[in-house]
Amino acid sequence: MNRYPKRDDLRAMSGYHSPQVSVPVRLNTNESPIEPPTEFVRDLAAAVGDIRWNRYPDRAARELRSAIAALHQVRPENVFVANGSNEVLQSVLLAYGGAGRTVATFEPTYQLHSHIARIAGSTVVNGNRNGDFTLSEDEVRRVLTDHQPSVTFLCSPNNPTGLAEDPALIASTVATAPGVVVVDEAYAQFSPHSALPLVNDESRVAVSRTFSKTWSMAAARLGYLIGPTWMIEDLDVVALPYHLDALKQVAGITALRYVSHMERGVADVVAERERLLSEMRTMPLTVWPSQANFILFRPDSTGGARSGGARSGGGPAGGAAGEIGRRVWQHLLDNGVLVRDCSSWEGLAGCLRVTVGSAGENDAFLVALRSAVSARD
Ligand code: PMP
Question: Which atom of ligand 1 is closest in space to residue 30's alpha carbon?
Answer without folding.
Answer: 8
